Amino acid sequence: MSLDPIPGDLYHMQDMLDPGEQETLGRVRDFLAAEVAPIANECWSRAEFPFHLIGKFGELGVAGLGYDECPGEKPSSMLTGFLALEMARVDPSMSTFFGVHTGLAMGSIGACGSDEQRARWLPAMGRMEKIGAFALTEPDGGSDVALGLRTTARRDGDHWVLNGAKRWIGNGTFADLVVVWARDEADDQVKGFVVEKDTPGFSATRIENKIALRTVQNADIVLADCRVPAENRLEGAGSFKDTASILRRTRSGVAWQAVGVMLAAYEIARRYSVEREQFGRPIAKFQLVQDLLVKMLGNATASLGMVVRLAQLQDCGQYRDEHSALAKAYCTSRMRETVGWGRELMAGNGIVLDYDIGRFVADAEALYSYEGTREINTLIVGRAVTGHGAFV
Fold first, then answer.
1. Which stretches does DSSP call E strand in the chain?
2. Over the chain, what is the mean pLDDT?
């Protein structure tokens, strides 16, 4: 099939997908337009998650792409990137929900789980019959989590006992499986555990009063002598290096999300400029308005080129930490500028949900911060290009 171009894809990057990948992207695009776009503002305003869409997401057949335990051919990194872009272009909250489930939770099990563990959990997660979450960040630990992780794990017979607290855990209030990272008291190494819903000692409380990604159900999690069966410890997760390998892959997905947000902001502002009249003519005829639109388009185009090349590096095995770190830092910084220019172009209407742009302005703040702040990602790149680490 031949897809309609993405508004703002000035250099036709979407055309780099093969016909089968374009068909997959088209199915997802149609679903988002029919099911997500009409309710995105209402869900965001009410801070309510559309649980009725989970089954429909599962029917798309894209959650398990890339996992041997799930049906379907292995997708290119370009396709998975465009899927993240497409979802974020409609609703960054739903894109985040999907990314936490498929990238962080399924990614942890796929990369660090044993054959038995992957077979036990991934097929149902691929069908979205079981939803996953990823619990790393803590109330007093964010950027320093590699050294400052306080949640502990202690082996006790055929169980592990977990104690501690986690914060900002997307999907955490309703996930069936939560990948919890904890420090083993015996060897001081960070290890991964799959905690199943309703496990005694596990509790999750929704974080209220957010101003970004309001549809996402972020949780404060408490682990109080939470006993996890030994077979639920991810066998391949033996140190924080294994945790970091998951974040390296998902960080690139956030860069793709940032491009989706930029393209959404650009198209919203462009469409508004040709419809809105002032001084007897569309504001699109004013030079300063065109200047804002072109700056928005330039940021989106440069960032799309960067993530496309990033996907190529992933698929040819030349992908390194600094590649995803630079893309995440750069694309989310440009995203912040871009949504701000879109709101500026729309003046007072830009702060009303009815005109959409305000939701993207707010959600951009969360994307800018999660999966590593700009500063932390800058230090990762700085270490790579100078040979000197500047971390505290």
1. 132-135, 152-156, 159-170, 177-184, 190-196, 202-206, 218-229, 277-278, 281-282
2. 94
